[in-house]
Amino acid sequence: MRPLVEAKLLRGGIPGDRHFAPESARQLLLIEAETLASLGLAPGAVKDNITVQGVRLMGLPAGTRLALGRAEVEITDECYPCTRMDEIRQGLMADLAGRRGMMARVVRPGRVRPGDPVRVLQPAEPRPEVVG
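Below the sequence we write its predicted structure tokens.
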């Protein structure tokens, strides 16, 4: 992962990204800057495509739409940490449980730049917490 001064989001994700696929529900991984900061990690460290600040992503239900710069994305599912996180740093998989980020797909192509506003476009109801 490398920082960009601008990303062009297309139906399929970010051109050149290994997960670029127009039919995929896993085109982008969005994560909260606050999560990365609390773990001492830089944006992109956990293979996230877009880092947002000041918007609570975790718990947004599938179907929630977000405006990112001139683009619009739709949340598809939570991204659950895998064992690859422990390759980055031992114990990171456990540290990211419940806060790895949300997967999304591009529904309106557009450009996004660092510092662009991020807005929830649809009212989002929290997902029910599973106790088990």
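The mean pLDDT is 91.
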